[in-house]
Specification:
Blueprint lengths: L1 E3 L6 E10 L5 E9 L6 E10 L4 E8 L6 E6 L7 E10 L27 H29 L7 E2 L7 H5 L5 E7 L2 E4 L5 E4 L10 H7 L8 E9 L11 H8 L5 E6 L28 H10 L8 E4 L3 H5 L23 E4 L29 E2 L5 E4 L4 E6 L2 E6 L5 E3 L5 E6 L4 E7 L10 E7 L2 E3 L3 E3 L4 E4 L5 E3 L3 E7 L4 E7 L13 E4 L2 E7 L7 E7 L14 E3 L7 E5 L7 E6 L5 E7 L5 E5 L6 E9 L2 E9 L2
Parallel strand pairs: 8-9, 9-12, 12-13, 14-15
Antiparallel strand pairs: 1-6, 2-5, 2-7, 3-4, 3-6, 10-11, 16-17, 17-18, 18-19, 19-22, 20-21, 21-28, 22-23, 23-32, 24-27, 25-26, 28-31, 29-32, 30-31, 33-34, 34-37, 35-36, 35-38, 38-39
Length: 629
């Protein structure tokens, strides 16, 4: 029914008679909506249970706007016809006190569970509680800065249930947020459940959105606590998912926590229980060193396109208007922080932001946002929500997170990473340890890990339900990846690191030289570690000339004292030089233009890798030769 007119911030009552032909009754949805796009609720959205006999229904609500309204009855979803009669909508006169309340008897409730008491009373209670919360933060701020005389930044945060909480902490130097995913609880039969859902599976933003509610314009912001329970298949999202979007949003840092459960319910946060200690188990957060390096170097560039949210005074005085994302009354998409940097700007705007996400083209496509390809600015981050995958792709940081399966990805500068399995959940971060992109960096670090649990833990299904804590050592599910990296360096070393960060000499990663780069496989079934240090070496600083007719050495490897150099077709006379691994030229000979095959003597040269360099006019060719005795 259309044509209804509302009075904002007034209690209204909707009366109607209804029945259904369904013998067992039928539930319908009753709503008061804007009569036109975007059809949002104007204060009433409630389910009503109908019976086979006529019944009178009366629904009270506070109207949120004066725009033309539309009374909607949602009657689908189940069998049974619905009959409606005598529909009437009108403002309702309300008293300031309810019948059982009295100032003399001190029985007036500050916050009444029924939100349909007078809006004026609700407004007064809201402003009182906002001032009360603000006075706490002001007193603590003055105590630290004035009474104690500490010249430090003072910040804080809370569980941001409304924009009024932002008003309360406005005087602080920076803001914080505490977010998390999942929890641990006991089932009806005494079994334990690690109740977690991957943030990458959450279609509406999950923890990144919740954290962004406290990010203010021109103020530092920290995630004071990002908490995930242990054990949890998705525990590495802390470093990959949360860490990457923290950098993209240009937030200033985050603290990581895990919830552990004692053997006896109820659970509590502890550092150890009867079977397991969280201390000195590097595999639990093996990705943190790589993420820490990424934070220090700014490996993911912050978004340059920014979206600011404005909150009006009316929204603060009547918090029931804050019914959408970012405390707005208009329908607003909570997935903004995956595409743009977002900040709360004014808390006293004349007009609040209206559907701010529509300035982002991705939300205006037919069918809405494509959840299989939520791509951040600069294509640094790609979230595939249906697949539960995240791809991280910047010049100095690449990686992945989620249900990888037979994952294959081509990253920047033609780096390729292929997940060979067998782990169902896998996480990787590969970060440059200097200011150069990974392909040009002499030093970089790969952190590769999967699910972590105690030996003997018992799981049921694949949804994080478990029935036994386990009593053995902490274990990590092994997996394997294949990597190809383009490089103009002469050699590459991949060195496994132990849990103390020291190279493990008992394991070797074979390196395959391919045209224009290197290829190698990291198989944790063969090398049980999560960390690999990469170092690229160059014997000469002369660029290698590569074409269809390169300098060739035969045989290679060389096991006798002599061999041959086959010169390129474009050889116009020049020199052949042999260099050792320390960068010394150990032999040099002049080769005329007419020569194409030149004998080489290695009789006085020990085993090792050498570099043969041919120079002809302005051209240069190079080829490695392995001498084995």
């Amino acid at each position: 029914q259309s044509g209804a007119q509302l009075e904002p911030h007034k209690v209204h009552v909707l009366r109607f008679w209804a029945k259904t032909t369904a013998p067992a009754g039928k539930t319908i949805q009753v709503s008061i909506l804007r009569h036109g796009y975007p059809w949002e609720s104007l204060g009433l959205s409630q389910q009503v249970r109908l019976t086979p006999s006529w019944q009178r229904y009366e629904l009270s609500f506070i109207a949120t706007d004066s725009i033309p309204a539309y009374i909607a009855f949602g009657v689908g979803g189940s069998d049974g016809d619905v009959f409606l009669d005598s529909i009437h909508l009108a403002p309702q006169q309300t008293e300031g006190l309810l019948p059982d309340e009295s100032l003399e008897r001190a029985t007036v409730l500050l916050l009444h569970p029924d939100s349909t008491i007078t809006p004026e009373r609700l407004r007064d209670a809201t402003l009182f509680l906002t001032d009360l919360e603000k006075s706490y933060y002001v007193s603590m701020y003055r105590f630290i800065r004035d009474s104690l005389g500490l010249p430090i930044l003072v910040g804080g945060g809370t569980d941001f249930a409304s924009a009024n909480d932002l008003v309360a902490i406005e005087m602080l130097d920076f803001t914080t947020a505490s977010v998390g995913n999942g929890g641990i609880y006991s089932g009806s039969s005494g079994e334990w459940h690690a109740a977690t859902d991957a943030s990458l599976d959450a279609a509406w933003g999950s923890t990144v959105y919740l954290a962004s509610l406290a990010a203010r314009k021109q103020k530092p912001f920290f995630i004071a606590s990002y908490t995930i329970p242990y054990p949890c298949p998705f525990i590495n999202e802390i470093a990959t998912y949360a860490g990457s979007y923290c950098l993209f949003q240009d937030w200033d840092g985050m603290a990581v926590f895990n919830t552990f459960a004692s053997v006896q319910f109820p659970w509590d946060r502890i550092q150890q229980n009867h079977f397991w200690s969280a201390e000195a188990v590097y595999a639990l957060h093996a990705l943190i060193p790589a993420l820490s390096s990424a934070f220090r170097t700014g490996a993911i560039g912050p978004s340059t396109e920014r979206l600011y949210i404005n909150i009006s005074r009316e929204l603060l005085e009547y918090p029931y208007l804050q019914r959408s994302a970012y405390f707005l009354s208009s329908p607003t998409d909570s997935r903004i922080p995956f595409l743009r940097m977002v900040r709360i700007d004014s808390l006293d705007a004349q007009t609040p932001s209206f559907m701010p996400h529509l300035v982002i083209p991705d939300f205006n496509r037919d069918g809405g946002l494509d959840m299989s390809a939520v791509v951040a600015e600069g294509e640094q981050l790609r979230w595939n929500q249906p697949a539960g995958q995240l791809s991280i792709n910047s010049p100095r940081l690449i990686g992945f997170q989620g249900r990888m399966g037979s994952y294959y990805q081509t990253y920047r500068n033609s780096i390729t990473v292929e997940h060979l399995g067998p782990a169902s959940m896998a996480s990787m971060l590969w970060t440059s340890l200097d200011s150069l992109p990974i392909v040009a960096s002499q030093r970089s670090l790969i952190a590769l890990t999967t699910r972590t649990q105690n030996e003997g833990a018992i799981w049921s299904g694949n949804n994080s339900l478990w029935q036994g804590w386990g009593s053995g050592t902490t274990q990590v599910e092994a997996t394997a990846i294949a990597i190809s990296i383009p490089s103009d360096y002469d050699s590459l070393a991949v060195i496994p690191l132990g849990d103390d960060g020291v190279p493990v000499a008992t394991y070797t990663v074979p390196i395959q030289r391919i045209r224009g780069g290197f290829r190698f496989i990291l198989d944790q079934r063969q090398i049980p570690t999560a960390w690999f240090a990469l170092t690229q070496y160059r014997l000469l600083h002369t660029p290698e000339q590569t074409d269809a007719h390169e300098l060739t050495i035969y045989p290679n490897p060389l096991t006798s004292g002599s061999g041959f150099a086959i010169l390129p077709e474009r050889w116009n006379g020049g020199t052949l030089e042999l260099w050792d691994g320390s960068g010394r030229c150990i032999s040099r000979q002049r080769v005329e233009e007419s020569r194409r095959v030149v004998p080489l003597s290695f009789a006085d040269i020990g085993s090792g890798m050498y570099l043969l360099v041919g120079k002809s006019e302005s051209q240069c060719w190079a080829q490695k030769v392995l001498v084995l005795r």
